[in-house]
Amino acid sequence: MKLFVTGGAGFIGSNFIRHVLALKKGYSVVNYDKLTYAGNLANLESIAEDPRYSFVRGDICDAAAVEQALRGCNAIVHFAAESHVDRSIYEPAASIETNVKGTFVLLQIARKLGVERFVHISTDEVYGDMLPGAFADENSPLQPSSPYSSSKAGSDLLVRSYVRTYGFPALITRSSNNYGPFQFPEKFMPLMITNALDDKPLPIYGDGKQQRDWLHVEDNCRGVVAVLERGRIGEVYNIGGLDVEENLTMLHRLLRVLGKPDSLLTYVKDRPGHDRRYALDCAKMEKELGWKPAISLDEGLRQTIGWYQSNSDWMAGVRKGDYLSYYDKYYVNRDTSLHAIADGGKAPR
Ligand code: NAD
Ligand code: TDX
Q1: Which pLDDT does position 125 carry in this prediction?
Q2: pTM of the model
Q3: Which of 139, 277, 329, 343 has the most CB within a 10 Å radius?
Q4: Taking the chain, what is the end-to-end CA distance rounded to the nearest angstrom?
Q5: pLDDT of residue 344
Q6: Which atom from ligand 2 is nearest to the alpha carbon of 192?
Q7: Cα of 175 from ligand 1 centre, angstroms
Q8: pLDDT, block means (10 residues), the chain with 349 residues
Q9: Could you give the C-alpha distances from 32 to 147, 219, 293, in angstroms and in order?
Q10: List of residues 6+ apart from 103 with CB closer than 8 A
C-alpha cells in the first residue's frame, strides 16, 4: 500500500506517519505538505531516512503539483488543513482556501488518477455546541460556529457529494481534541504545558467552563488506520477519547502533574463565538471496527508532559519568530487585538 499523506509534517499527520511505518510493514508513505507555520520536518526526524518514506513540499491547492506527487499512490489520508480556530477567527481566508478549495483539488485529482481509498480527516467541531449531557453521533446536524469549523464542514460536504455523485471511494473521520507529542504550542494543551514549565501565566478564555473531549493522538492514529483499512465507503466515523472535561478542570489536572501552583491561572477575554461543549458518541467505531481509546487521560497527560519536559530543543525551535509575534498580539495585547476584530477591522500589526 502506497499512502499519500497530506499535512504529514503537522501534529497528527507526523504522529500518523510514524505510527504507520512502525506498525505496518507493507506500507510506504509520501508526505505532501506545504510547510506552513504549523508544518515542521523536525517532527519526522526519527523516520526521515526510512526507505519507505518520502517528502514532497507542495500546496494541496496546486492541482499540477498534487497530480505529479500523487501518481502511483493507492490511498490518501488527508490531514492538511489550517487547523487552529483562533487563527481562523483572526484571519479566515487561509482556512477557506486550504480546507475547502484544497480538499476540492485533492478530490478532483484523486478521482482522475483512480485513487482506491480517500480518508478525509475532519473534526467534532462540525457538530457545533452540544447541549449539556448530549453527545453527537455521525447523524447529528452540522452546525459549525467558527470559520475553521465551517470550512471543515464545507469540506465534509464536498467529500460526501463526491461519494454520492461520482461513486468516489471516500470515508470521513471526525475526531475530538487531540493531544500528545509534537503539537504546536498554539493549542490549549501544549500552550498551557509549556507556559507552566516557564512559570508564565496560563490564559483561560472566558469562564473556563467550556468542555472538550480529549483524545490521545496515538489512539486517533489507530482509529484512522482502522477506518482506512476496514471502514465502509461513504461512511463517517466519530473518534473521541470518551473523556469530556471542563477546560478549568483540565488545567488543574495539568498543574498537579507538573507540580506548579494554581496562581499561574489567568482569565482572559473570551474567544468570539466560543463553543461551550463538544462531546462525541463513538459507538459506531467500537461496533463496526472494534476500536476504542486505550490511553487514559492520566497516563496520556503524564506521557505528554514528560515529552515536553524532555524535548526543550524542539520547543525552542518552534517558539520563536512568528510564534512570538502571534503570542504577543493575541495574548499579551489580547484586549486591543480582539476589540479591533470586533470592530470589523484587522487587529493592529
Ligand atoms: P497542524 O496544524 O498541526 O498541521 C497541519 C499541517 O498541514 C501542517 O504540516 C501544514 O504545513 C500542512 N498544510 C497546511 N496547509 C496546507 C496546504 N495548503 N497544502 C499542504 N499542506 C498544508 O494540524 P493537526 O492538529 O495535525 O490537524 C490535522 C488534521 O486533523 C486537520 O485536518 C484538522 O482539521 C484535523 N483535526 C485536528 C484536531 C486537533 O485536535 N488537532 C482534532 C480534530 C481534527
Ligand atoms: O489559550 C487558550 N486558552 C483557552 O482557554 C487556548 C489556545 C484555548 N483555550 C480554550 C478554547 C477551547 O475551549 O481551550 C479549549 C481548546 O482550545 P484549542 O486547543 O484551540 O482547541 P479547539 O478550539 O477545541 O479545537 C481543537 O479541536 C478540534 C483543534 O484545534 C481543532 O483543530 C480540532 O478540529
Answers
A1: 98
A2: 0.98
A3: 277
A4: 46
A5: 80
A6: 1
A7: 12
A8: 98 98 97 98 98 98 98 98 98 98 98 98 98 97 98 98 98 98 98 98 98 98 98 98 97 98 98 98 98 98 98 96 96 95 69
A9: 24, 23, 28
A10: 60, 78, 120, 155, 158, 159
Of ligand 2's listed atoms, the one at least distance from the Cα of 123 is 34
Cell numbers for 169, please give them: 471511494
Give all domains of the chain, ordered by start, each with its CATH number: 2-179+216-242+274-295 (3.40.50.720)
Q: Which of 156, 187, 270 to mutate to test the pocket of ligand 2 (most atoms within 8 A of CB)?
A: 187
- Cα distance between residue 231 and residue 285, in whole Å: 9
The DSSP element (H or E) to which 203 belongs, if any, is strand 202-205
| Sheet containing 236-239: order of strands | 53-57, 28-33, 2-6, 75-78, 117-123, 170-175, 236-239
Pocket test for ligand 1, best of 19, 43, 57, 79 (most atoms within 8 A of CB): 79
Three-state SS for 130?
coil
| Cβ 110 vs Cβ 118: under 8 Å | yes
- The answer to whether the CB of 187 is under 6 A from ligand 2 is yes
Grid cell at residue 222: 489507530
- Tell me, rounded to whole angstroms, the distance of Cα 146 from its chain centroid: 15
Whole-angstrom distance, CA of residue 44 vs CA of residue 53: 10
Active site members: 124-125, 148
Sequence letter at residue 300: G
Contacts by residues 294-299 (CB-CB < 8 Å, ≥ 24 positions apart): 294/219, 294/222, 295/216, 295/218, 295/219, 296/243, 297/214, 297/241, 297/243, 297/245, 297/253
CA of 85 to the centre of ligand 1 (A): 11
- E strand or H helix at 297: helix 297-310
* Distance, CA of 319 to CA of 325 (rounded, Å): 10
Q: Say yes or no: CB of residue 205 within 6 Å of ligand 2.
A: yes
Element of type H or E holding 4 = strand 2-6
Ligand 2 centroid from CA 331, angstroms: 14
